[in-house]
Amino acid sequence: MRTVATMVIAYLIGSLNPAIIITRLKTGKDIRTMGSGNAGFTNVLRSVGTGPAVATIVCDYLKGIIAVLIGWWIFSSLTVTNDVAPIEYVKYGRYLAGMCVILGHTFPIYYGFKGGKGVVTANALMLVVDWRVFLMIVATFLLIFFVTKIISLGSIVCAALYPVYTLLVTYFMDYLPFLGTENELRFRFVLISTACAAAVGAMVIIMHKENIGRLLRGEEKRIKAKGSDK
After folding, report:
1. Does residue 226 form part of some domain?
2. What is d(CA 83, CA 62) in angstroms, rounded to the nearest whole number?
3. Which of 102, 103, 137, 184 is most buried, judging by how many CB atoms fall within 10 Å of its CB?
4. Rounded Cα gap, residues 140 and 209, in angstroms
5. 137, part of any domain
6. Is there a domain that residue 157 lies in?
7. What integer best gives the mean pLDDT of the chain?
8. pLDDT at 35
9. pTM of the model
10. Rounded to the nearest 10 degrees, what angle do helices 187-207 and 209-217 cross at?
11. For residue 172, which phi and psi values (nearest 5 degrees)?
């Protein structure tokens, strides 16, 4: 029941789409009929303006953080067994909530199952699950963005690297230093964490399939806010 509750609550929170709500309040229009048609930060920035885009990204972050924290809290009350350490329970709860909030953002029940691509919400998941991996992802994204000015490219590369970074951090920093000691974390934790990160990364990449096509054709636009001539 706790697992089901985590999934449902996270999905319903994820289905609240700030890009749609804020754009409708600002312009009276549906962001999905504007620009690229995506209900996310980048399209709001290009089609509506910087202020609404900032509000969108903040709200997307908050809903991701809130959903993951709820999953953390629910799973922290689970009964501990000899095979699973408390830290494993709560981390699995965070991943489960994170994946469901991304699913809600991408396929929102309130808006005909047509939402955004889940990049910002996924980044919020990374922050709450493991700040070390989060910092690595942010550094990678900023490097790619500053060089190319293409948000989708940074998002796709970071999604692909998320399981790689998760594997490196959990294996070399959480598991290996305590091998042979009474460390609560087992190698299973490394594998499941990496698998969850791979699932999140795959979700983001799949939602960027059109961007990937434009990138391969050299047609993907560089970021430019509405009203900017640069």
Report:
1. no
2. 33
3. 102
4. 20
5. yes
6. yes
7. 88
8. 87
9. 0.86
10. 70
11. -85, -20
